[in-house]
Amino acid sequence: MSTNSFSFKPNLLFCIIMDAIGYFTYALPGLGEFGDIIWAPLSGFIFYKTFGGTKGLIGGILNAIEEALPFTDFIPSFTIMYFIQNKGK
User: How many domains does the chain have?
Assistant: First the structure.
């Protein structure tokens, strides 16, 4: 039985947009790290729900940590997982 009841296969554009939202917090003056405090857990949850399973859970936790840590927003977590999920297809 799957713990991920939400069935969604993300496309590359969705993943790029999700990564861009993470970068966007630095585009607004004064938002910066405060925006990351709000975005980090939300991004981790979306990551888990998007990719599901063990990879989604571990990736979601790592994604939330990456978004919360300063100066690590440049890592395109969603896009990397997209390519991991679709390698060899």
Answer: 1
